[in-house]
Amino acid sequence: MRIADLQEKIDTTTAADTLTESYSQQWEAMSQLDQAGPVMQFMASNDLIFVVLGVSLIIWLVLIGFLIRLDKKVSSLEQQLENTESENRQSKETMYTPQENELE
Amino acid sequence: MKPWKYAVAIWMTLVIIGGFLIEIPEIPILLESARNLFLHVPMWFTMFVTFGMGLVYSIRYLNCERLELDRKAAAATQVGLLFGVCGLLTGSLWARFTWGTWWTFAEPKMNLAALAMLIYVAYLVLRTAFDDPEQRAKLAAVYNVFAATTIPFLLYIIPRQMASLHPGAEGNPAFSEITAPELRYIFYPAVVGFIGLAIWLFDVLDRYKKVQQQLKQRTIYENS
């Protein structure tokens, strides 16, 4: 069991290492972190987990923004529907008034 | 609300929880931000699917000229653009902490993805240029076929011929031996979940457009 576990661990590290070997020399990462502002330092803390939070928030905000816009559009559609309906009612009412008939 | 939408909601919730909680191998520089694989990459997969849906609807429109197909093509493309923008923004943030820059012109995939977005923004701008729905639908469908054909070149073929900061440049697929197997347990479900979410958004947007269309027709009919 322990050997198998160890073997598995070695396998994953090699899998991970291929990535770093081929790309890390081009990836500058946060090499100038000490000169960066407090926000950037915070984002880079805790093994970059806040970057994942930031990415989740971006997706969430874009999707919720879309939803809010769509909701507003649906509301205006409802308003439009209500307006046309009340117009219809008004035009029907006016059709039966004697004044309208006289004019015609 | 149809039952599959509840399934998507629960599925995505589990994916997000799993994505934050699973053990991932330690990869230098990437560290915990490797979890962005579950968020950033599915954005692009979802975009491909929705743009693909738009392409199919556009071709079907050209075939039988039913206006509802044009409406569906527009809705799918809008949702695709939404996910494309998410992909660009999340990629930019991720790049800042791994590549050391928000945006770099040395990276073909990044720039060509932005170009692809602009091509699709042009599709939506083109649609607003016509008042006649038939004319708009026909030209938009033809343009959409062109826009969709640029996607494989801009996002697959050209980036693979060039040096890139993205993993998986220079000919090798991004998602092969270089990705640790544990990441896949969440990655694939995340792709499925985001595609489900996109189809959900597409459905709501399409229903909105349908009602809008019906209301417009009714007012035209009543006024005439």
Summarize the SSE layout with pairings.
The complex is a heterodimer of chains A (104) and B (224).
Chain A: H1 2-23, H2 38-44, H3 49-95, H4 98-103
Chain B: H1 3-21, H2 37-64, H3 67-98, H4 108-128, H5 133-161, H6 181-223
- Give, in order, the helices and strands of chain B: HHHHHH
What is the number of domains of chain B?
Answer: 1
Q: Helix/strand/pairing class of chain B, anyone?
A: mainly alpha
Number of strands of chain B: 0
Global structural class of chain A: mainly alpha
Mind describing the biggest β-sheet of chain A?
A: none
Main pleated-sheet profile of chain B: none
On the 0 to 100 scale, the average pLDDT of chain B is 90
Q: Which oligomeric state applies?
A: heterodimer
Listing every helix as H and every strand as E from the N terminus to the C terminus, the arrangement of chain A reads HHHH
Helix content of chain A: over 70%
Please tell me the overall pLDDT of chain A. Answer: 74
The shape of chain A is rod-shaped
Beta content of chain B:
under 5%
Radius of gyration of chain B: 20 Å
Low-confidence stretches of chain B: none
First CA to last CA of chain B: what distance? 36 Å
| Approximate helicity band of chain B | over 70%
Number of separate strands of chain A: 0
Which term fits the overall shape of chain B?
globular
Low-confidence stretches of chain A: 9-18
